Amino acid sequence: MITAVVPAQSEEYRVGRVLESLLAIDSIAEIFIILNGSDKTTRNVAESYLQLYPCKISLVSFAAPLGIDVPRAVGAKLAYARGADYALFIDGDMVGEIYRQLKSFLQKAVRKQLDLALLDCYPDEKHLIKLQEPVFFWRYRLNRELGLVESLNIATPSHGPHIVSRRMLASVPWQDFAVPPTLLVHSVLSGYRVEIAGQIAHIELGSSVKNPAHNRLIIDTIIGDCLEALCLWRHRPRSRYYDGKLYTGYHDRRRFDLLEQFLAGRMM
């Protein structure tokens, strides 16, 4: 069984298009919409789909924003509890016409029995990727240290839809689904199969365009996550410091306290 996890925060004009793409894929048995701090309009859109597809869509709502990537951890727990063989994670703002690519992506991941399936989001631009750009450098450095750079280049679960197997859902701490690069480390440490299983160019994902301040915070978030992943790999205490700088980004807005309450069954 394949379960899709769709985090959404105030994506009233986008989440419906994402759901339409997922509903068109017959192999997806259930879709979890994780609403966190969403506005009323987004909630209404999600509820309208729930009414139309009550056997396929489940709605999980949090009053407060959980912070970047934390809804993935919620969805991972729910997918595992529901008995999913695979969980597809896709953000609620990815409105590109990617139905066919997603379907092929799922088919290949299942056929090859991958534990972590990633997308190549730069299929025609490998020669243009400049590793002096910090976020690309750190994605490359992590994959190189893990021995994955030949197969993955700079692919990461931080960027684009990705698929996780049931045995990975069973073995990775839920909190690490909220720090996506650590999934790569867990894959290697456990001897799991991680590969690129499809190509969707970044521009085709249709993610919403953000302002420069947001982009800087995202860059620092991903770099900090890569630094944490490297610490995990090296069996060192986790740190987001490098060369005198703390790479926080949005990390301090991740509500791990709310995640813990959810995992303990004290909130939904």
Keywords:
268 residues; alpha/beta; Spore Coat Polysaccharide Biosynthesis Protein SpsA, Chain A; globular
Would you kindly provide a written description of the structure presented here, covering whatever features stand out?
By secondary structure, the protein is an alpha/beta fold. The protein has a single domain (2-126, 152-208, 257-263), classed as Alpha-Beta Complex (Spore Coat Polysaccharide Biosynthesis Protein SpsA, Chain A), CATH 3.90.550.10. Helices cover 41% and strands 17% of the residues. The protein has eleven helices and nine strands. It has helices at 15-23, 40-52, 70-81, 99-111, 134-145, 149-152, 166-171, 182-189, 202-205, 212-233, 256-263, and strands spanning 2-8, 28-36, 57-62, 86-89, 116-120, 162-165, 194-199, 241-242, 245-246. Strands 3-2-1-4-6-5-7 form a seven-stranded mixed beta sheet, sandwiched between helices. The protein has a two-stranded antiparallel sheet with strand order 8-9. Strand 1 (2-8), helix 1 and strand 2 form a beta-alpha-beta unit. Helix 8 packs parallel to helix 10. The mean pLDDT is 93.
Rough outline: globular
State the share of residues found in helices, binned by percent: 40-55%
Number of strands: 9
Residue share in β-strands: 15-25%
CATH homology-level superfamily: Spore Coat Polysaccharide Biosynthesis Protein SpsA, Chain A
Low-confidence stretches: none
SS-based class: alpha/beta
Q: Order of SSEs, N→C?
A: EHEHEHEHEHHEHHEHHEEH
**Please, how many helices?**
11
What is the domain total for the residues? 1
Named CATH topology: Spore Coat Polysaccharide Biosynthesis Protein SpsA, Chain A
- In the CATH hierarchy, the architecture is Alpha-Beta Complex
Order of strands in the sheet with most strands: 3-2-1-4-6-5-7
CATH class (first level) name: Alpha Beta
